[in-house]
Structures are given as structure tokens and as C-alpha cells.
Amino acid sequence: xxxxxxxAIAQALIDLGVEVVTHVPGYGGSDTFLAxxxxxxxxNKFSFHEESAFTIAHSASICGKRSASLMKTHGFMKAMNSxxxxxxxxxxxxxxxxxxxxxxxxxxxxxxxxxxxxxALPVNYIQAGTTKIYDHIISAFELSEQKKLPVVVIINSxxxxxxxSFEQKPNxxxxxxxxxDVYSHVVHPMLSDYQYRVYIARKLGGDPFSISKPExxxxxxxxxxxAKNIALKYEPFFKIFxxxxxxxxTGDTSGLGVFAFxxxxxxxxxxxxxxxxxxxxxxxxxxxKNVWALTGDFGFISAGTIGLIELLQRELPIKVxxxxxxxxxxxxxxxxxxxxxxxxxxxxxxxLLHITNPSDPFEVESILKEASAANExxxxxxxxxx
Length: 386
Prior knowledge:
Blueprint: E1 2-4, H1 5-15, E2 20-23, H2 29-40, H3 50-62, E3 67-72, H4 73-78, H5 80-86, E4 95-101, H6 114-120, E5 124-127, H7 133-147, E6 151-156, E7 163-165, H8 182-185, H9 192-203, H10 225-241, E8 248-251, E9 269-270, H11 276-285, E10 291-296, H12 297-314, E11 319-324, E12 327-328, E13 334-335, H13 338-344, E14 352-355, H14 361-373, E15 378-383
Parallel strand pairs: 2-3, 3-4, 4-6, 5-6, 8-9, 8-10, 10-11, 11-15, 14-15
Antiparallel strand pairs: 1-7, 12-13
């Protein structure tokens, strides 16, 4: 088959059964994204920020759908908050980031080479040649699924419209099933040593299954004092929430992460602070329809609002819970200006629900029931006293 490099990439993604494709507009990537939407007869939405684009695709791969994220090298640097945690959470289906490199600098603010950046990071990557781009995309997904890690493909954006030839390969599609696994999908300090050793084994071709798993701590009593105190404050909410938790619950690296552990088992996927909403979007796009995203107010203000834009862009009925502490509880209790959250959510009045007394099980249950029954996205503010 003869076509352009951009359409060859799109065809490889289609032949692999890649269903979740994210993209932040940029030279090279935009041509490929449009080609994918056209050839697949899909209407994937573009993203506004690479951090969310990467996270949505990463989450979809955890949840069992092959996924890809298309961005420029400069954008990949913006996604680094998510990238650095993604390497410590195992994927279920292949996840490949297509990195469009502008070696001329004519389509970017500067020239930024991708390979030196990736060499300094613990990320597997392939320097793709345009003439064999179809085969390189397939190889990248094979490597991702072998390593159970994200893989990056570097593409010369200046060659994206070059004519290439390739032989289409049959029977590339595979089925994957998500299985909840705290060790693999919850990035947490209590598991950091284990997850690091698993990552090193996968990176170097070792056997991650030979690494003994630590015993999961029981929430909240077997956690360090600060985490335990935060969890005790949240515990009345989670005693009710566990009855509403839905198919997938995503969270942030904050105090609420304690409730990913037994006996609550209320959070399924956690990566970086502020990442719960794009993680939830990826879970939804992978096929789970009852999805909740849990975040602290600090995480929501710092990075969660980026994910909220992606939620609006896609109009998905995901339920978001914001634990409104007025402080950065997991980093020392630094106070948060009360005006910030109010101003950030000023345009969302019809989507807001408030729990004014988190210790009241009847109020908590009533609000969660209302949110759960809604056919549009809802933001539940759990208001804790100063």
C-alpha cells in the first residue's frame, strides 16, 4: 500500500485495534490525528494540555484498551508530571506516545531534540524511520505489552507527508481484560520500593514476578501518623462511598490514597497529584461507564482543573469528588485561600453538589445517591471545617 506517512501511522493504529487516541494540536501530529479520525470513522476530541492527553491514554491502557497519545517534543515535557508516575504503574494493553520532533524549529518555539531527553528518563523509546513507520508502530505496541510499560516513538514531523509503502498486516487486534491490582495500578509511598524494583526488572528484561510483594497495609491504622490522621477524617465519607463506588474509581497521590487499601478498596488507579480526572476519562473511554474521580482541593487546584477542561470537552458523565480541606493536607497542612476553589468552580453551579457535614452518614448518602443517578458530570464538594 502506498500513502503518506501520517496515514500509514493511522492505519497501523487501526489495524492494532487502538480505540483511544489523544492529541494536542501540533505540526505532524495533527495530520496524523485527522487521518486516524477519518480512516477509523471516529470523532476523537483533541486535548488542550499534554499532561491530560498522556494520562487519558495511559489510563485507557491500564483499563484494557490499546491507546496512543500524539504530541510534540515540547509538549512531552509538559506531560512529565504524568510520565514519571506512569512508569511505576503497569499497563494492561499497549500504550504508545507518538512524539513528533521538529528538527527545523520552524513549527515550534525552539529546536528540542527528543532522544537526549528520553535517554535521561527511564522510558523505552524507538527512533522511527519514516519509510518503515507502519512496522515501527506495531513494534512499539509489542514492546509496550512485553514490558507492560509506556513506549515512545520519535517521528520526524518534517517527513509526515512523505509517500511511504507498507504491507498491511492481518490479525493484529487483541482482547485485554482489566483486573484491579493495587500493586500495579496505585502509585503510593507504601508501595514505592516494590514498584521501583518491578520497574527496574521490566526495564532491564528481568522477571518482575520474582519480586516478592509486601503485605498490603490495612487502612487507616497501619499507615504513618500523618496519613492515618488524614484518613481518620475521611473515614466516615468512605464508609458510605464504598456502596456507590462504581466500576472504576481514580484518585490522586494524596491522603485519600489510603482508601485504595483494604478493607475499603475504594480507589483503583492512582498516579500523580491532580491526575484523577484524566485518569477517570481514560477509564470511561475504555468502556467503564460508572466512573468516579477523587481529588483533594490542593491537587484539584494545582492540576485537576486541566483535567476538568478535558471532561468538558468530551461531555462525559463522570462524577468528581473534591475533598475541601482548605489546606495541602498531605504536604504539611499549608493553608489554601478559600476564594480559589470558589472562583475556579464559579461557572459550574448546575454541576455542583455539597456535603456540608461529612460526619453525617445520611447527608453523605443522600448526596452520593443524587450524584450517582445523574446522567451528566457532577462535582461533589466535601466541605471539611477549617
